[in-house]
């Protein structure tokens, strides 16, 4: 695929397709976001189960697992390439189950990715083509379409940020962060970014701040207990984040800490925009399973233990923000009030295997 056809043009290193996850020569290479940007290292996976484990272990996160999942399916096809078509079909179906369930909170989204890969495999078998190559071609098309929709979201989001606006982010919104800044730059609109650090993995400090700074915007990192003080004393024009799930009742599941920032934003009159599209599979927030991860992570900071021996930790990965705290959900079709998300589904043309961002 020619460079000009790719939707990742003008985006920083972290958001280029090959630098997220990529299958080639029997190996999936995944950028290890746990150590980036201090070190640029790739985890090499030689089986699809290793890809699933890498996703579980947070080697990549935000939208990174979606690219990794498709690359993992290409690897699964390569693993069983010398078997009968029936055996390949069974192996790929099992791989889709394994990969899509690597993280419980995003199962429905991952199933769209793996389902699209299975459909690509079926076409390849029917046409006598290479299944791994067909799945990688599907990955490129899928990523281009997803990035294109995010670019439309970015346009609607930048409409709501004044020139010189001060923007507070939470965690790492992946593609929307880069697209928002690419759009702002194309309009000649200057923004100032404040990135909450987002413990215990520090995605805001390491990933979001790196993307913002690499794209040439003034970027400031704050600790997770500073958002209210920032809004109160220095002013914030917009608080924004992506979401791991946007439920049809308007509630949003995102990195733990989002709820408390939303409360502060509401109290201080700061608009809060969530980017993404609603999940048909989640009518209410109660339908989303919130992961509880290894509590030891909260007792450490960048690998160094910070708590005394015997002290316990608790690590819910996400929290749920109710719709009354959200100003609007920014989609590719425009901005919707949280209580009008079903209108988006009526207007959108979402294919059976299309990624819900």
Beta-strand portion reads 15-25%
Which stretches are poorly predicted, pLDDT < 50 over at least 5 residues? none
| Rg estimate, integer Å | 20 Å
Q: What multimeric state do the chains show? A: single chain
Number of strands: 15
The string of secondary-structure elements, in order, is EEEHHHHHEHEHEHEEEHEEEEEEH
Q: Work out the helicity level.
A: 25-40%
Would you give an account of this structure?
There is one protein chain. This protein is an alpha/beta fold. Helix content is 39%, strand content 16%. The chain contains 10 helices and 15 strands. It has helices at residues 48-56, 64-79, 85-100, 107-127, 131-158, 175-186, 203-214, 227-233, 258-268, 341-347; strands at residues 21-24, 27-31, 42-45, 165-169, 191-196, 218-222, 238-241, 245-246, 252-255, 272-275, 300-301, 304-305, 318-321, 328-331, 334-336. The strands form 4 sheets. Strands 6-5-4-7-10-14-15 form a 7-stranded mixed beta sheet, sandwiched between helices. Helix 2 packs antiparallel against helix 3 (85-100). It is globular. The two termini are 23 Å apart. The mean pLDDT is 95.
